[in-house]
Amino acid sequence: MTQPEAKRFTLAGVAMTRLVSGRQTGGLFCLFENASPGRTATPVHVHAGDDETVYVLEGQLTAILNGEPRTLSPGESLFLPRGIPHQLTNPDERPARYILIGSPDVFEHFLAAAGRQLRQGETAGPPTPDDIERLKAAAPRFGITLLPDWPAKPVG
Predict the structure, then answer these.
(1) Cα(102)–Cα(80) distance, rounded to whole angstroms?
(2) What is the secondary structure of 50-106 as a DSSP string?
(3) In the chain, at which end, N or C, are there fewer CB atoms within 10 A of the end residue's CB?
(4) pTM of the model
């Protein structure tokens, strides 16, 4: 991997480090190492033209695929096919690290538009209102449909 490929972004409170770019794979896939500090959740969403695969390195993730939750622990993976609503969450306060593979490389382009590049030494924090609006505006351009109620409204 060359230094330009290893850019770091934040999206939905998760730090995402690009390890393999679509440019390197002829657009076939992109690969990211993601780090959730805890208490993170993507919007429930559907991809029209790309698939995702997650592989947990440390901590736990809850993947909700078509309404069915599944807890993933280190060494476990899950394929998230296009056309199926899904969400990735780290509901507790412990950090989690996982690999995300997007195929083809649509996710990489979406992340560049919807996320924000992290500066050297900067960590991801909760998404700001600007972060949320940028994500919502970018999603349709990349065939991603966001389903309602994200971020979740506080109870009470």
Answers:
(1) 10
(2) -EEEEEEEES-EEEEETTEEEEE-TT-EEEE-TTS-EEEEE-SSS-EEEEEEEESTH
(3) C
(4) 0.91
- Joined tokens for residue 84: 């199926």
- Convert the pLDDT of each residue in 71-95 to its tens digit: 999 999 999 999 999 999 999 999 9
Question: What angle (nearest 5°) sits at the alpha carbon of residue 76, between those of residues 71 and 78?
Answer: 75
Query: Residue 154 pLDDT more than 60?
Result: no
Phi, psi of 119 (to 5 degrees): -80, 165
Which contacts qualify for 64-71: CB closer than 8 Å, 24 or more apart?
A: 64/88, 64/89
Alpha-carbon distance values, 107 to 47, 49, 50, 115, 139 (Å): 9, 10, 8, 11, 10
